[in-house]
Amino acid sequence: MALLITKRCINCDMCEPECPNEAISMGASIYEIDVNRCTECVGHYDTPTCQQVCPIDNTIITDPDHTESTELLWEKFVVLHHAVS
Ligand code: SF4
Ligand code: SF4
Predict the structure, then answer these.
(1) What's the predicted TM-score (pTM) here?
(2) CA-nearest residue, atom 3 of ligand 1
(3) How large is the greatest C-alpha to C-alpha distance in the chain, in angstroms?
(4) Using one digit for the tens of pLDDT, what is the confidence trace for 20-35?
(5) How many CA atoms lie within 13 A of 70 on its CB side?
(6) In a 3-state reduction of DSSP, which class is residue 1?
(7) Residue whose CA is closest, atom 3 of ligand 2?
(8) Could you tell me the pLDDT band of residue 66, with boundaries at 50, 70 and 90?
(9) If you measure from the C-alpha of residue 20 to the centroid of ligand 1, how many angstroms do you get, rounded to a whole number?
(10) Best substitution site from 15, 26, 50 to test ligand 1's pocket, by max atoms within 8 Å of Cβ?
């Protein structure tokens, strides 16, 4: 499942440099997450690091429109990082 940044975002810039997949960038008015690059941190961390660093509770949430199994998130990680098993 990719994550989603809601309108609660205060553009504090904390999450963008922490994403291991470069999935976070500034959008039209608030930060956004690229669903094609977000692995929910699978392959890097045990929990989504953007949620860990965000100072505003419930700002970064799971995106109900982009549900993926852990297996699919691992496949996304492999493609993003050109990892060969
Ligand atoms: Fe990036 Fe991880 Fe947040 Fe997804 S969950 S946007 S991969 S930091
Ligand atoms: Fe917005 Fe949270 Fe990212 Fe700060 S850490 S830019 S409040 S989503």
Answers:
(1) 0.93
(2) 50
(3) 40
(4) 999 999 999 999 999 9
(5) 4
(6) coil
(7) 15
(8) confident
(9) 7
(10) 50
E strands, the chain, in order? 3-5, 24-26, 31-33, 60-62
Q: How far apart are the first and last CA of the chain?
A: 23
Looking at this protein, which amino acid is placed at residue 23? A
Q: What structural domains does the chain harbor?
A: 3-81 (3.30.70.20)
Closest-approaching ligand to the CA atom of 76: 1
Number of H helices, E strands in the chain: 2, 4
Residue type, 53: V
Name every protein residue with a CB atom under 6 angstroms from any ligand 2 atom. Answer: 5, 9-15, 31, 53-54, 56, 59-60
Give the angle subtended at the CA of 48 by the CAs of 81 and 64, to the nearest 5°.
100
Q: How far apart are CA 42 and CA 29, in angstroms?
A: 28
